[in-house]
Specification:
Helices cover 39% and strands 14% of the residues. It is built from 13 helices and 10 strands. It has an 8-stranded mixed sheet with strand order 3-2-1-4-5-6-10-7, with helices on both faces. It has a two-stranded antiparallel sheet with strand order 8-9. Bound molecules: beta-D-ribofuranose and calcium ion.
Length: 326
Amino acid sequence: MADRTPVLIDCDTGIDDAMALLFMLAQDRYDVVGITSVFGNNTAAQCAINSLRVLELVGRTDIPVAVGAEQPLVGEVTYLATHVHGSDGLGDAGLPVDVTASVDARDAVQLIDDLSREHAGRLRILAVAPLTNLAHALEAIPDLTQRIHDVVIMGGAADAPGNQSPAAEANIIHDPEAAQAVLSADWGLTLVPLDVTMREVLEESDRTALFDAATPVTEFVARATDFYFGGYGSDVYARRASPAHDALAAAILTGDIVPTVFPEIDVTVDCTDGPGRGSTICDTRGRYRGFEGTAAGRVRVALQTDGGFPRVLVQTLVDYGSRLSR
Ligand code: BDR
Ligand code: CA
């Protein structure tokens, strides 16, 4: 289909990144033209391998996967989220660790340069990891913002608590300076923060539905989710359940999920060294007047969704898995 919309996914492939990849790969109207990796849930090198493992599962190793930044713009990486995503980054769910495909010879910035030139004005970016690669790309490619249609980011917390510190979300606190550069660049921006991702919750019944579909895709997601439920279950929800952060951002990109509160507002990242470091200061003061009158805002921030996303995700994966298994 010639008119499919090209999408580049910038990710630190852990469990919910894998869900986002599968959700996007399942779409007829979207064409995943490249994947770039960055440190976060694991090293950038391992996250690229994890993307290849997911691509092998669905027979799509034709998509280039390029390795990106292993360190933030300032300082050094302080932790990798193996406690949340498993030692292999994909929930130790049995996906083969040996991949036959190789990572692309180009690095992440080069792949962004090439794809943004090839799909100038049309390329959409789904960024679901620390924003270091995009910050490097903005620096290296002066006209990048004009080549990109828009950027949809999973990250931050508007009014919700953080998940890596009381104030900050993981993707942003990993590299606040990069996030500030990306969020202040002159391109279309959507932010999908914890305010919505933490409220779209996968339950045991969703895992059961995935297992029952009995396809390699759904069984992998069900097993990986089991690991995810472990971490989130006791620490956050006090029951076996988990969000699917990055996949929700993917569904907001495609329009499958339309946030019910979705204002364009100002967002500034705290780059100081205090307890607020990495927090996203979102101007939500317009809420009492329905957000009318804050048109000067540049970032469309998803503040509320209706809770229906887990069912959309499960159905998409079941349909995709069945299609591939035919
Ligand atoms: C974000 O952090 C990562 O661990 C997840 O993949 C997601 O992108 C949630 O805070
Ligand atoms: Ca991620």
